[in-house]
Design brief:
The radius of gyration is 20 Å and the shape is elongated. A hairpin with a 5-residue loop joins strand 3 and strand 4. It is of the alpha+beta class and 162 residues long. The protein is 15% helix and 44% strand. It folds into two domains: 81 residues, no CATH class; 73 residues, no CATH class.
Length: 162
């Protein structure tokens, strides 16, 4: 049975990065190592957050994390931020092609990263506002906030892939 969490009836504490523990005040039930996941990752924001157990089963759905107690809300926000971390590319250092597999090295807001792009036609998505979403061969995601604001060399490397 899925429980819908409407407000401060649950206490959520951190449990190592993307996992949380939950205690329901009314029933006294406790759950450990739950994974918070957005039911609507692109549009949902702070609403409709599922708490999944180790089997991937939904234990509860938080309708809006803004209705939680501040400590619980912070734990959920931190876990979601860690899980949905998308490095933002600030410049490209190099792109090399070997057997139709591209190795890209980029500077991001989380340091320098090298990743593999197998098919730039289907994995590099330019958006109308200049943002570019990239998915690498391991399904990791990256974002260029506005490719038009990259340095000249970086634009020269990425524009043929758009």
């Amino acid at each position: 049975m899925i429980r819908y969490v409407e407000g401060p009836e649950i206490r959520i504490t951190g449990n190592d990065g993307i996992f949380v523990n939950a205690e329901f005040y009314h029933s006294g039930e406790k759950f450990e190592e739950l994974e918070p996941r957005r039911l609507f990752p692109k549009s949902g924001g702070n609403k409709y957050i599922a708490l999944l157990d180790s089997e991937g089963e939904q234990i509860a759905i938080i309708r809006d994390i803004d209705d939680l107690m501040p400590e619980s809300r912070k734990v959920i926000e931190d876990a979601l931020e860690e899980y949905y971390l998308i490095p933002r590319i600030t410049r490209f250092i190099k792109m090399t092609d070997k057997f139709r597999v591209w190795m890209w090295t980029a500077e991001t807001d989380h340091g320098t990263l090298t990743f593999e792009v197998r098919n730039h036609i289907s994995t590099v998505k330019p958006l109308y506002d200049g943002r570019v979403l990239i998915k690498d061969a391991n399904d990791n995601r990256y974002e260029i906030p506005d490719y038009r604001k990259l340095d000249k060399r970086s634009r020269k490397l990425i524009e043929p892939k758009l």
